[in-house]
Specification:
Largest sheet: 6 strands, mixed
CATH architecture of the largest domain: 3-Layer(bba) Sandwich
CATH class of the largest domain: Alpha Beta
Strand order of the largest sheet: 4-3-7-6-5-14
Organism: Zasmidium cellare ATCC 36951
Number of helices: 14
Shape: globular
Oligomer: single chain
Strand content: 15-25%
GO molecular function: oxidoreductase activity
Protein name: FAD/NAD(P)-binding domain-containing protein
Keywords: FAD, Flavoprotein, NADP, Oxidoreductase
Order of helices and strands: EEEHEHEEEEEHHHHHHEEEEHEHHEHHHE
C-alpha cells in the first residue's frame, strides 16, 4: 500500500512497514488479526502481556472466528483459562504528509502502518493503586488485573482482598454431553446471541412487571435467581433497566436473597447494594454470598471505614483499626472504556492528542472512529455496545474490514468521520442512557459505566445501552450507503 509524497516538487512513492498495526491480543485483537488476514493485509500485533489473553465475562463458546474452528475445537469450560508478548506501545502518531501512522514501543522501536487498530478492550487498563504506603508491605501483594503467570498459593495465609468484584463466577468444566451439544447447536446458539439485546445465548423477556400480582412477580424472579447470572436480568422481565419501580422490586429481591443467604445480619446488610440493579453487576445466584458464612471470612466496609494506608504488616483504616495479613490482593478494577486508549499518547491530525481531548468529553462515531484520527479504528472502545463482547467484536471487526476494503477498492489514502456524525452518535448514546434507570442508579455507585470508579475522570456514559441489534443495523447502514458519514480522500 504505497502513497505518493511530494518533496520539493518531486513525487516519491512511500510504503509503510505494515498495512495494519494492532494493539492487543485479547478477544478484540485476535478477532481483528483474523479479519486482517482474511483481507490479505500485512500486519503486526503488540501485546503488553506475555501471551494471548484478556478480560471477558462471556461464555467462551460465544465466539465465532470460523466454522472450521467451531467444528474442530472442543470447549471444555464455560469461561476461558486466561494466561496473561512483552511489548507496550508508548505512542502513536499520524503523519499528514505520508498519511501513515507511526507507533513507537517502550524500547524505542518504531513501526509504520496505513491502518492503526487499537484493540485493547474496555477492561484492560488497570487502575493505579490509590493507597498510601503500598511499598511498605513486607508480605506478598498482587493486583487482580496484573495477575502473575506463576502459581500463587494462599493456603494457610491471612489474605486481604481489597475490592468486591467476582468474575467469572460459577465457572466449571463442561460435561462431554454439554460439549457435544454446543458443537451440534453452535449455529443456533450464535444466532440467538446475535439477536439478544446484550449478545447472550438466551431469550429476552418482553413481559413488563407492571400489572402482575406480587406472587407472580416473586415466582418469576425466583426462577431467574435459580437460573443464575444474566438470566435473572434478561429472562425475567423486560423493563428492569427502563422502569424505576420494576428495578426497585428486583433490586430488593436481590437484597432479600443476600439477607437469606448470609447468616450474620450486619455482614448481609454490608453486602446489600445501596443502588439499583444494573448500576453495577452483583453476583446473581452464583453461590458467591455463601462465602461470607465461612468462619475464616470476614468483611470490612470500606465505605464507612476507608483504608487510610498500607503498613508493613497489613492495612490501617481511617478509624485506626489495624489488620495484619500475609498477602494482599488489590481487586479495584479498571479504567474502563477509555483507559486502554488514553494510557499512551495517540496524536492525530495537527498533533491533536486523544487523551487530552477525551479528558473533557468522549466523542466517537459508532464507538470505532474519531474525527482528526484518520485510518484509526478502535475495537471494543468507548460508546460501543455494553454487551457480550465476543458477539460485538464479530460485528465490529468485519465492519472495519469492509471499511478498509472500500478504501482500497477506491484508492483512498485516508478516511475519518465527520464532526457532525461524531456529535450525532454521542448525542444518541447519551439520549438512550438517559431513557434508562442508570443515570440515577450509577451516580452514587462509583460505576465504571460512567467512569465514576476513577477519581477525577469525567462522568459520562461510556457505552451504548441501546442493544446490539440496532447497533449492528447502524453499522451496516453506513456500509450499504457508501460511508456517507465519513470524509474520504
Amino acid at each position: 500500500m504505497e502513497n505518493t509524497v511530494s518533496v520539493n516538487g518531486t513525487s516519491h512513492q512511500v510504503k509503510p512497514e505494515y498495512d495494519a498495526l494492532i494493539i492487543g491480543a485479547g478477544f478484540s485483537g485476535l478477532r481483528m488479526i483474523h479479519e486482517c488476514r482474511q483481507l490479505g493485509l500485512s500486519l503486526k500485533a503488540f501485546e503488553a502481556g506475555p501471551a494471548v489473553g484478556g478480560t471477558c465475562e462471556s461464555w467462551v463458546y460465544i465466539m465465532n472466528f470460523s466454522k472450521q474452528l467451531n467444528d474442530e475445537w472442543t470447549w471444555k469450560e464455560r469461561f476461558p483459562c486466561q494466561p496473561e508478548f512483552h511489548t507496550r506501545i508508548q505512542s502513536a502518531r499520524w503523519n499528514d504528509d505520508t498519511h501513515f501512522w507511526t507507533l513507537e514501543t517502550e524500547f524505542g522501536k518504531k513501526h509504520t502502518c496505513k491502518y492503526f487498530i487499537p484493540a485493547g478492550g474496555v477492561l484492560s487498563a488497570s487502575r493505579r493503586l490509590p493507597f498510601l504506603g503500598v511499598e511498605r508491605f513486607k508480605g506478598e501483594w498482587y493486583q487482580s488485573s496484573y495477575w502473575p503467570r506463576h502459581s500463587v498459593s494462599l493456603k494457610g495465609k491471612r489474605v486481604a482482598v481489597v475490592g468486591n468484584y467476582v468474575i467469572p463466577a460459577r465457572n466449571h468444566l463442561l460435561s462431554a454431553d454439554q460439549q457435544e451439544s454446543i458443537k451440534e447447536n453452535y449455529a443456533e446458539i450464535w444466532a440467538e446471541a446475535k439477536n439478544q439485546s446484550f449478545g447472550m445465548s438466551m431469550t429476552d423477556s418482553h413481559t413488563p412487571m407492571s400489572g402482575l400480582s406480587e406472587a407472580k412477580i416473586q415466582r418469576v424472579l425466583e426462577g431467574g435467581w435459580e437460573a443464575g447470572g444474566f438470566r435473572f436480568v434478561f429472562e425475567t422481565f423486560g423493563d428492569l433497566i427502563s422502569d424505576r419501580q420494576s428495578n426497585d422490586i428486583a433490586s430488593e429481591f436481590v437484597r432479600n436473597k443476600i439477607r437469606s443467604v448470609v447468616k450474620d445480619e450486619k455482614t448481609a446488610e454490608k453486602l446489600c447494594p445501596k443502588y439499583g440493579l444494573f448500576a453495577k453487576r452483583p453476583p446473581l445466584g452464583h453461590y458467591y454470598f455463601e462465602t461470607f458464612n465461612r468462619a475464616n471470612v470476614s468483611l470490612v466496609d470500606a465505605r464507612t471505614d476507608p483504608i487510610k494506608e498500607v503498613t508493613e504488616h497489613g492495612l490501617c483504616t481511617e478509624s485506626g483499626e489495624q489488620y495484619e495479613f500475609d498477602t494482599i490482593i488489590y481487586a479495584i478494577g479498571f479504567d474502563a472504556g477509555t483507559g486502554s486508549l488514553t494510557s499512551f499518547d495517540i496524536n492525530g491530525r495537527n498533533g491533536e492528542n486523544l487523551g487530552q481531548k477525551w479528558a473533557s468529553h468522549v466523542e466517537t462515531y459508532l464507538g470505532m472512529a474519531m474525527t482528526n484520527f484518520p485510518n484509526m479504528f478502535a475495537i471494543a472502545a468507548p460508546q460501543g455496545p455494553f454487551a457480550n463482547f465476543p458477539v460485538v467484536l464479530d460485528s465490529q471487526a468485519p465492519w472495519v474490514g469492509k471499511t478498509i476494503s472500500y478504501m482500497e477498492k477506491n484508492n483512498y489514502k485516508q478516511v475519518e468521520p465527520t464532526q457532525e456524525a461524531m456529535a450525532g452518535w454521542t448525542k444518541t448514546v447519551n439520549d438512550i442512557y438517559a431513557m434508562t434507570i442508570l443515570p440515577e442508579a450509577t451516580k452514587d455507585s462509583n460505576s465504571y459505566f460512567i467512569g465514576a470508579n476513577v477519581p477525577g475522570k469525567k462522568i459520562e456514559p461510556l457505552f451504548w445501552f441501546g442493544g446490539i441489534v440496532p447497533y449492528f443495523q447502524a453499522c451496516e447502514e453506513e456500509v450499504h450507503t457508501g460511508f456517507p458519514n465519513f470524509v474520504k480522500s
